[in-house]
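name: query_chain
kind: protein
chains: 1
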Amino acid sequence: MIKSHLLKYLLISPNLPVGGFCYSEGLESYLNNKNLKDSNSVKELIISELKIGQIRLDARLLSDFFDIFNELNYGKNLKSNLQKLLSLDKWILSSKDSVEMREQQTQMAKSLFDLNKEFGFEYPYKKNKKNSWPLAWSWACYCFEITKLEMVENFFYAWSANQLSAVLRIIPIGSTKAQLIQRDLLAIISKVSKEIMDKEIDDIYFGNIGLAMAQQNHNDLYTKLFRN
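structure:
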C-alpha cells in the first residue's frame, strides 16, 4: 500500500469508516431536555465535553494503544503487551454508561477493522469478542503512520464533526453556523489534544456531564435521519 499523509482524511470522512452511520451519543435527548435551540449553546456543550467529558478518556487510550503496537512491532515484551492490549480494550469499553454506547463502540470498531483489512492492514493480534473504537482508531493510525498528536486531534475532530452533523438534523441552526462552530473548535481541539498527550491515564479528569447523562436515559443513539 502507498503511504500518504492524506490517508488520515479517510478517518474523518463523514461516510467512512463507520459505514454511513452517524451516532448522536444521546444528543437528541440532551437537546430536548435542555431545550437548546441556538448555535452558541451547542458550541458550549461540545466545548464542555472536550474539556471534561468522557471523550477525553477515549482519546488518551489512543496513545497507549499506539505505544503498545510500536513495541509489538519491534518484538518487545510480547506477552505482557498483548495482555495489556486486551485489558485496556476491555476496560475502555466497560467504562461506557449504557449498552447502547457499548454497541455503538463495537459496531464502529468492527467497521474500521474491516476497512483497514481492505487497505492491507489486517489486525494480527488476539482480540476480545467485542472491541472498542479507540483500539480500532489507534490501529488504523499506526498502520497509516499518522503521528500520535495528529491521531488524537483527528479523533476529537471527527467526534465533534459527528456531533454537529447530528445537531443539524435536530435543531435548525443551519450548515453555515455548524461550520463556524467547527472552526471555533479547532483551537480548543489542538489545546486539549496536547494536554491529553502530556498526561498519564490516571491523571485524566472527566465528569459525568452533558451527553454522558443523556445517554443513560436515551435508548436510541443513532441519528434517525442517517438511517438508510
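note: The domain at 6-220 is CATH 1.10.4190.10 (Urease accessory protein UreF).
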